[in-house]
Specification:
This protein is mainly α. It contains 13 helices and six strands. It has a domain of about 130 residues.
């Protein structure tokens, strides 16, 4: 009788530990959350490391679970509005992003982003170097998050440069003059100047640079920028070659990540339609921001500054409304968390 009781207790405990959270009748299994954690580890470049060697304590893991639950609540709302994995617009964006997304994950494996460390001294040094050119009121504590991101970009660029040097020993790379018809040759693959120019112009567009701003950049500085973009382009082509050899895109975890990418796109489209597109930005709000931070916008024309300010305010208001929406959904739902199961997440 005692043995039977122990067996029943083990079975009950086993069944209980299979779920990690419940949102009303929606059950989030431990397996689903573990898959999410595995994806996060892989995106950081370390697919085998135990999550507990990355996070500081159990409270941090609970915070990750809470964020996961909030994402799930948003996804459920998005799905209800028709933004699903099979949505035509979702699939259209997914097909455009898929290749670059896989390549970014592959790159993270090669340079192991999880090993990039940003110290407080790095952040302070970055801030002090640029303090005089920052807008009024941009105190260190207020922009620390943005500084961290900028320092990470710098450290990532150094890692990428080292990786390219490593590949230069494996691949035959010839860089021609920037005005050559074929700007570079990788083994037998020839890259036309026109392809490079398209890539360079796309990078400028992403940075928000205007033609007037480019005119004020010295030719030597512009060529330096072009050489950096060329190096990124060469590394991108080599990574594609390496991925093909490794069969990386057929990896089971990559397939899981691609499904998560579809969910993220669905959420983004939902947020845009439900919150961002509905935000109204008044002229008074724009002028108030412009007057307070004229130094910040001094290198932009007024029209471009106005566009930038409008988008910034729209993002701030829209995501605040999203935050209120999620909180309201949480208050209207019965949410349970299984912290016993959380302790077994690796």
């Amino acid at each position: 009788m005692k043995k039977t009781f122990i067996v029943i207790l083990i079975l009950i405990t086993s069944i209980f530990s299979q779920w990690i959270a419940k949102i009303d009748k929606k059950v989030i299994s431990k397996k689903e959350f573990q898959k999410y954690i595995d994806i996060q580890k892989m995106s950081l470049g370390n697919k085998s490391q135990n999550i507990r060697s990355i996070i500081k304590n159990d409270d941090e893991l609970k915070s990750i679970l809470n964020q996961f639950i909030e994402n799930k609540i948003t996804l459920m709302a998005a799905n209800k509005e028709g933004f699903t994995r099979t949505n035509k617009k979702v699939l259209q964006i997914f097909n455009k992003q898929k290749k670059d997304y896989i390549k970014q994950i592959y790159l993270s494996q090669k340079i192991d982003i999880s090993k990039i460390k940003v110290k407080e001294s790095d952040l302070r040094a970055f801030y002090e170097k640029r303090k005089s050119s920052l807008p009024k009121g941009a105190r260190y504590e207020l922009i620390k998050k943005q500084i961290y991101q900028a320092v990470m970009v710098e450290k990532l660029a150094k890692k990428k440069a080292l990786l390219l040097k490593k590949y230069e020993k494996k691949y035959k790379i010839k860089k021609n003059k920037l005005d050559s018809f074929y700007i570079t040759i990788i083994n037998t693959k020839k890259i036309k100047r026109s392809n490079f120019n398209d890539n360079f112009n796309e990078q400028l567009k992403m940075m928000g640079a205007t033609k007037d701003q480019l005119k004020n950049i010295p030719k030597s500085k512009l060529n330096e920028m072009k050489l950096k973009v060329l190096d990124d382009m060469i590394l991108d082509i080599i990574l594609s070659m390496e991925m093909k050899k490794d069969g990386f895109s057929k990896n089971k975890k990559i397939l899981d990540m691609l499904e998560l990418l579809k969910d993220n796109i669905a959420i983004q489209l939902f947020i845009k339609a439900k919150f961002l597109d509905k935000v109204v930005v008044t002229n008074d709000e724009i002028m108030q921001e412009y007057d307070v931070n004229k130094k910040k916008y001094s290198q932009l024309g007024f029209d471009q500054a106005r566009k930038y300010i409008t988008e910034t305010i729209k993002q701030k208001k829209g995501f605040k409304n999203l935050e209120l929406f999620v909180e309201d959904k949480k208050l209207g739902s019965i949410i349970r968390k299984n912290y016993d199961a959380l302790s077994t997440i690796k």
